[in-house]
Fold this sequence. Notes:
four-stranded antiparallel sheet; 4 helices; about 25% helix
Amino acid sequence: MISHEVVQHFVTRFISRRDDYALQQPTGRYLRANRPLMQNMLRRHFDGVETVGTYVMDERGMCRYAVFDADDANGLDVLLLLSWQLVEEGIPSYLEQSRRGGHLWVLLDGLYPASVVRRWLLPYCPAGVEFYPKQDEGCGYGSLIRLPLGLHLKSGCRYPFLLWSDEDGQ
Length: 170
């Protein structure tokens, strides 16, 4: 079982909007829950009972992360190259596999307006890759993305964060 402390740490990194969330349907689509995201729902997400989608912006249009989403067959390769580019700029990122490619998460050191995050990171976005947040603050709920570490209901798979190593194992 995942401890309360681990869940809280997860919340501080991956949950911006806490007053609402969405639930993935077996088709892969999401339906808004219209209620606050509670810890018991996160536990259901981790257990693979339900899959939570989270909004990138909070109620005030602030973000605690940004995500590059590549859904092409070579999506992971594109995101890996982008992650190296970001590292060269001093920006750490975390690569997560997804059903059709991958997500590259940039976890921020605090809350920032979506417009600031977009001005900073959108110029790095390769062609054919989606960038979240897609909109500036003041534009409603905004973008939704699958919360990491849950079961994708359409594929029946969990998609992990990936670690890269060269051929020598370093």
